[in-house]
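Dear H.,

Thanks for agreeing to be a second pair of eyes. The structure we're designing against is below in token form, covering all 145 positions.
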């Protein structure tokens, strides 16, 4: 389970330092592959290798004859990038994903269960403030039997 909120640096070569507590969650028998793609609300989704396989199987089962699933899978997969965690705990991020998520020198990495998300500091602060204001209301609608 990938959890927590971490403030991280992005170096001059476009590499993001993965928080130490998350690094082991991205390592498995196949190594330390991390799959990165466009997320929602201008963040990036980071998947460990095993979870990437699960997610891609779900998306492959969507009907390609319908417009919304077709558009989503196009954007999801066309923005995808495979990276490896280096010895210093960094992953490379391509320029198109930097631009998409409005990333600069600092980022916020959050755990969201089966994946992590990378947000610009400003993007996360704005999103979290708005979501926290309605946190109780959201819980009421989601947790009702």
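And this is the sequence the design step returned. I haven't edited it by hand at all.
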């Amino acid at each position: 389970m990938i959890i927590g909120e971490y403030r991280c640096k992005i170096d001059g070569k476009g590499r993001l330092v993965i928080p130490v507590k998350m690094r082991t969650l991205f390592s498995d028998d196949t190594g330390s592959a991390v799959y990165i793609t466009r997320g929602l609300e201008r963040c990036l989704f980071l998947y460990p290798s095993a979870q990437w396989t699960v997610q891609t199987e779900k998306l492959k089962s969507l009907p390609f004859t319908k417009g919304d699933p077709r558009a989503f899978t196009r954007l999801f997969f066309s923005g995808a990038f495979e990276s490896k965690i280096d010895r210093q705990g960094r992953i490379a991020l391509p320029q198109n994903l930097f631009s998409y998520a409005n990333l600069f020198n600092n980022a916020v990495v959050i755990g969201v269960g089966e994946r992590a998300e990378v947000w610009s500091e400003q993007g996360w602060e704005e999103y979290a403030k708005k979501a926290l204001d309605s946190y109780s209301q959201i819980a009421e609608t989601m947790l009702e039997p």
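Two observations from my side: The helical segments are 20-23, 49-60, 67-78, 95-100, 121-133, 135-142. Strands lie at 5-9, 15-17, 33-38, 44-48, 81-84, 90-92, 106-111, 116-120.

Warmly,
E.
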